[in-house]
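[Meeting: bench + compute handoff]

Bench side (C.D.) handed over the final construct sequence. Compute side (W.E.) agreed to return the predicted structure before the next meeting so the bench team could plan truncations. Sequence as handed over:
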Amino acid sequence: ARSQKVSEKANSPTVGAAYRVNDWLSVFSSSSRSFAGVPVSAIDIYGKPLDKQISGKGYDVGIKTALFKNRVFFNAAGFQVDQINGTRQALTSDIIEAGLDPLVVTGGRSIQDVSARSRGWESDVTVKLFDGYQIAGTYTNLHAFVTANRANPAAVGGPVSQGPGRESWSIFHKYDFPSSLAKGLALTHGVVFRDS
């Protein structure tokens, strides 16, 4: 069996700025780079372990609010995340194009030339209805699509295979019992939805 020892080094820088417009409104923006690691136990068409980081770069811009004497908080942001060096199964045409014999090159081989983009917006609201009780809700609308796939150009612009759902939302609420009844005791409940 082939064993692979992976040695990885990568930086994930983030830079952002926020500006407080007034007592209840702030605007913000940020940019970041991330990585998901080198694919483990995957080899290229030459039989060498894949060595490129599956990485991404993201941007967002949004607002933060605090209303009604800090009893209502609302945040919203638009975002875009690009992923590069995604993997795909090597095709016979890839092996021939590399000058190799597809009858000699056997087993699963991979190529890192797939890119994708996620674009959408998300929001959340938290309301303190009365002392000790608060309710929070979130909503995300996401569109993930292929931006590059040399083996399947028709897939470009189409959805990411086994990608994230288009919509998700959640509702959480929490009740802190008065300290005279049960100090430190809280009751919580939540519901989370993600489409397939």
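W.E. noted at the follow-up: Residues 92-97 form the longest helix (6 residues). C.D. will use this when planning the next construct.
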